[in-house]
Amino acid sequence: MEHKGRCHCGALEVRLETPRLPSDQILGSCQCSFCRKHNVRAFSDPRSCVTITVREPDHLQLYSFGLKTAQQVICRKCGVYFAMILIEGDEAWSVINIDALDDREQFIRPTQNRSYDGETVISRTERRKSRWCPTSMVGWPAKA
């Protein structure tokens, strides 16, 4: 199934391709302060794939905190938190904020609380590579 979405102003777009119905998807609720402040419903599945397209590169804001193993993707213009992305060489993996999708109301399962306290840089990076969605980036500025 294909699902599309964008930030409020349209500067960032996402396409999710996943084999399961929205009602069958397991959503996470990370307990870090960033995700709690944004009330994120997070989606990740290594059998799915994501494409993040930047339509207006000046509005792409990347933010990193904690162990700095990934970056939060935020629209600088409208403020929507879009995804978290791990980039290593030519490969990327992401977890997306399901509420950035146009059909977000179809993802009806309650979120599962998740805490990643105590992970090391290595264990966190390996977990993300094994559980997050393989991701393509389109239109990203060279310095992003």
Describe the protein in words.
By secondary structure, this protein is mainly β. It has a single domain (2-138), classed as Metal Binding Protein, Guanine Nucleotide Exchange Factor, Chain A. It has 2 helices and 11 strands. It has helices at residues 33-38, 121-131, and strands spanning 2-6, 12-17, 28-30, 42-43, 49-54, 60-63, 71-75, 81-88, 91-97, 112-114, 133-138. A hairpin with a 5-residue loop joins strand 7 (71-75) and strand 8. It starts with a strand and ends in a 6-residue tail after the last strand.
Secondary-structure blueprint of this entry?
Layout: E1 2-6, E2 12-17, E3 28-30, H1 33-38, E4 42-43, E5 49-54, E6 60-63, E7 71-75, E8 81-88, E9 91-97, E10 112-114, H2 121-131, E11 133-138
Parallel strand pairs: 3-10, 5-11
Antiparallel strand pairs: 1-2, 2-5, 4-9, 6-7, 7-8, 8-9, 9-11
CATH topology: Metal Binding Protein, Guanine Nucleotide Exchange Factor, Chain A
The SSE string, one letter per element, is EEEHEEEEEEEHE
**Estimated radius of gyration:** 14 Å
Average of per-residue pLDDT values: 89
Summed up, the domain count is: 1
Are there runs of 5+ residues with pLDDT below 50, and where? none
* Number of discrete helical segments: 2
The total strand number stands at: 11
β content, as a range? 35-45%
CATH top level is Mainly Beta
Shape: globular
CATH architectural grouping: Beta Complex
* Quaternary organisation of the protein chains: single chain
The largest sheet, given as strand count, sense and whether it forms a barrel, is:
9 strands, mixed
Overall SS class: mainly beta
Distance between the termini: 29 Å
